[in-house]
Backbone:
């Protein structure tokens, strides 16, 4: 697959779109401040409190069953101290991303889509912890948003995408393969266009673009490999739906495993198959976490 040609076709899909969901400017400012090592809770709390919707969202989520607080947390500043800057960053971005596309009708089961996305986030975080990647929360966020191109295709190319999905239902074809055959591009390139439109960090954009071609990831091959393997695991072991079908390990997964064994701070099992099987022991707690996250972000 020629990446340049695929990117050209992906950008053409965006050419006449004028109603893309947007991430509010206040969110970008808060996330930037949360990423600032010199920032203090008072400054961040003041900025969050300048937007009543954002402040209410932080308070609601921190007091949800997802975080199991022993006592109610009434203030934004206490929420920041309880969760930590990284967790607040991921929570804010995740909630706005979910909201941006949650009300748009799709030709596939959106609940299954979100369950898959949240599962990939959770498994990415578990893999990151196992290999001692330095920012497990970043792995979690990128895992959740890796498939954003699918929701664009499903909404703005609804009829065509529905026909494509009908054509591969109950077959061994993956959506990635079918998208290339049907559109000449895939949710990876489309997701990159969307990430760039939303001014996502270049690392996030690179992983969205290459989670099915990890050998091409350049910003952080280690993190790209983590997300690629988490996605493969969830496709193969977790989610069964036409929008997230299982496949056998290919070039991307084999490369990702090679990178993982090279950069892991701890020795890994002898094979990719064994490593993925070992993740099964983590799945029960991950499933519980995904249920809580889904109920908090989607239904609240």
Residues:
């Amino acid at each position: 697959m020629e990446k340049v040609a695929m990117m050209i076709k992906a950008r053409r899909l965006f050419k006449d779109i004028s109603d893309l969901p947007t991430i509010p400017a206040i969110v970008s400012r808060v996330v930037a401040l949360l990423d600032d090592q010199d920032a203090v809770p008072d400054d961040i709390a003041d900025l969050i409190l300048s937007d009543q919707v954002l402040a209410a969202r932080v308070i609601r989520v921190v007091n949800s069953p997802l975080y199991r607080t022993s006592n109610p947390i009434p203030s934004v500043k206490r929420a920041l101290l309880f969760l930590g800057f990284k967790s607040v960053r991921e929570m804010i971005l995740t909630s706005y991303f979910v909201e941006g596309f949650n009300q748009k009708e799709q030709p596939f089961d959106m609940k299954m889509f979100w369950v898959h996305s949240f599962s990939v986030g959770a498994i990415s975080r578990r893999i990151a912890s196992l290999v001692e990647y330095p920012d497990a929360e970043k792995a979690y966020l990128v895992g959740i948003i890796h498939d954003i191109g699918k929701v664009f295709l499903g909404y703005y190319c609804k009829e065509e995408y529905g026909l494509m999905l009908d054509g591969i239902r109950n077959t061994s074809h993956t959506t990635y393969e079918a998208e290339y055959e049907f559109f000449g591009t895939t949710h990876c390139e489309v997701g990159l266009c969307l990430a760039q439109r939303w001014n996502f960090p270049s690392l996030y954009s690179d992983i969205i673009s290459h989670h099915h071609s990890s050998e091409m990831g350049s910003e952080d091959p280690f993190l790209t490999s983590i997300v690629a393997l988490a996605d493969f695991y969830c496709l193969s072991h977790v989610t069964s739906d036409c929008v997230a079908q299982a496949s056998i390990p290919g070039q991307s997964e084999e490369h990702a495993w090679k990178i993982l064994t090279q950069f892991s701070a701890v020795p890994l099992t002898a094979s990719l198959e064994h490593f993925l099987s070992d993740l099964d022991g983590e799945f029960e707690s991950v499933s519980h976490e995904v249920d809580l996250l889904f109920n908090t972000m989607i239904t609240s």
The radius of gyration is 19 Å. The chain is about 65% helix and 0% strand.
